[in-house]
Specification:
By secondary structure, the chain is α/β, with parallel strands linked by helices. 31% of the residues lie in helices and 23% in strands. Strands 1, 2, 3, 4, 5, 6 and 16 form a 7-stranded mixed β-sheet that branches. A 5-stranded antiparallel β-sheet has the order 17-18-21-20-19, sandwiched between helices. α3 packs parallel to α6. The relative contact order is 0.13. It binds NADPH dihydro-nicotinamide-adenine-dinucleotide phosphate. The site of NADPH dihydro-nicotinamide-adenine-dinucleotide phosphate has 23 residues, from α6 and β17.
């Protein structure tokens, strides 16, 4: 009756996984993508950002090389070289994603496609296609600035392609993207100012850990302008940008302004409301725990549903959708204890409840253990930066309900710690584990 069993809109992490698993369950699948296969994570998000972050790490290593016996004369950073290398690798990854779709017999349609009925879509070139089930996974889109002169600012979509490294970079926002790019460009040698509308950065993270990041950022001479919203961006002769803030302080001059004030669900102009798909006030597609929208043949996964905006979550949702609808195995995913990291400098990593959340839920039975330490590498190099690990436990048996870290490699260490939290291990289980010495991770089993 239908052209396809499944029509997927959006070739990001969630869409590609859903399409691939659905074909392995025997479904006939088509997938439409208007831009590049791979989605935000691969094309203009996590992956290229992590590559830039690797590039940024060399700044510290090179500056400390002498302390470890190496003489390296006048290292010079070339933004254009790293930018192009990163883009080359993104091309490679995009190719691999396309190959995966091909090898799983997913028909790829490289056109914008909108929904015109509960079981029908239309491509930009006018082709109408029917499908028993439609899956929308069109992701999110960075929120642009709304002040006068907003058109002069860029978002994370553009930062990977800058012609030149900005000498003076203003980063607006206090979340993931702001803190990550502030750290990266600071390491590249740009003069970075991070401006946020309040004095709370990384709101969802343990604020003692965030406080350590702020302390370290200040000690590195990164400018923080808190309680300061954008008021006006003015382009001056010569191209630099004069920015006024709401804090009453002086306007300042920058070469680029990166706005990183959140991402909004990418649901506009897809025809969803016309066919009765309910959206929330942010434009997110409302779905149940099986990813089904208010129209029974239309499902959605990933950032367009605005649940947890993380790639591995979209992948899990896409997989669960395919198993549910085509694999005869209805299943939901758990949103508890999802490990996350901010690739700031140094990185922050976390799983489970913050101290505050735990106290709200478990009251006086909460205990907090801390390790405030100077990583060995920093001792050798003379760097004063300290790491901070926190473990939050609850109940008489001291079940570990949260682990929060800032320090080198914390984004690598947290994954194993998350297994322990998901497994419901207790403080005693950590204490019973022999330390791996010398390492930073050993702090987790030596907490007092
Ligand atoms: P975040 O939600 O992390 O942070 C948004 C920041 O902008 C907050 O500081 C917020 O302040 C501020 N803000 C929100 N609205 C406004 C406004 N109207 N004017 C001024 N400031 C505002 O968003 P990001 O853009 O940094 O990242 C988007 C999402 O992408 C993240 O939530 C995350 O899920 C994902 N991501 C994940 C990464 C990772 O896993 N490492 C990396 C990058 C992105 P306030 O706190 O006051 O609301």
């Amino acid at each position: 009756m239908f052209d396809y069993d499944l029509f997927v809109i959006g070739a990001g992490s969630g869409g590609v996984r859903a399409a691939r698993i659905s074909t392995s369950h025997g479904a006939k699948v088509a997938l439409a993508e208007e831009y590049r296969v791979g989605g935000t994570c691969v094309i203009r998000g996590c992956v290229p950002k992590k590559m830039l972050s690797y590039g940024a790490h060399f700044a510290e290593d090179l500056s400390e090389a002498e302390s470890f016996g190496w003489d390296i004369e006048n290292p010079v950073f070339h933004w254009d070289r790293l930018r192009d290398l990163v883009q080359k690798d993104i091309d490679r990854l995009e190719g691999l994603y396309g190959e995966t779709l091909g090898s799983h017999d997913v028909t790829l349609i490289k056109e914008r496609t909108t929904v015109i009925g509960p079981n029908e879509v239309q491509t930009a070139s006018g082709q109408k296609i029917t499908a028993k089930t439609i899956l929308v996974c069109t992701g999110g889109w960075p929120v642009s600035a709304s002040c006068e002169g907003a058109e002069h600012a860029i978002t994370s979509n553009e930062i990977f392609h800058l012609e030149e490294q900005p000498k003076r970079l203003l980063v607006v926002g206090g979340g993931y993207i702001a803190n990550e790019f502030a750290g990266i460009f600071h390491a590249f040698g740009s003069e970075v100012t991070l401006a946020n509308r309040s004095d709370v950065l990384l709101r969802s993270y343990d604020q003692e850990i965030v406080g350590r990041l702020i302390e370290i950022s200040k000690s590195k001479h990164m400018n923080l302008r808190l309680n300061a919203s954008l008021e006006k961006i003015e382009k001056l002769d010569g191209g630099s940008l004069k920015v006024s803030f709401s804090d009453g302080g002086d306007a300042a001059i920058f070469d680029q302004v990166l706005v990183a004030t959140g991402r909004t669900p990418n649901s506009k102009g897809l025809g969803l409301e016309d066919v009765g798909v309910a959206l929330d006030k942010y434009g997110a597609i409302k779905v149940d725990e099986y990813n089904q929208s208010s129209v029974s043949s239309i499902y959605a996964v990933g950032d367009v549903t605005n649940r947890v905006q993380l790639t591995p979550v979209a992948i899990r949702e896409g997989h669960a959708f395919a198993d549910t609808v085509f694999g005869g195995n209805p299943r939901t995913i758990s949103y508890d204890n999802i490990a996350s990291a901010v690739f700031s400098s140094p990185p922050i990593a976390s799983v489970g409840m913050t101290e505050e959340q735990a106290r709200d839920e478990y009251g006086d039975s909460v205990n907090v253990y801390r390790s405030d330490f100077r990583p060995m590498k920093n001792v050798v190099s003379g760097r004063m930066e300290r790491g901070l690990y926190k473990m939050v436990t609850a109940g008489d048996n001291e079940k570990v309900v949260g682990i929060h870290m800032i320090g080198p490699e914390s984004s690598e260490i947290i994954q194993a710690a998350a297994v322990c939290v998901v497994a419901g291990l207790t403080k005693a289980d950590f204490d019973n584990t022999v330390a791996l010495h010398p390492s930073m991770a050993e702090e987790l089993v030596l907490l007092k």
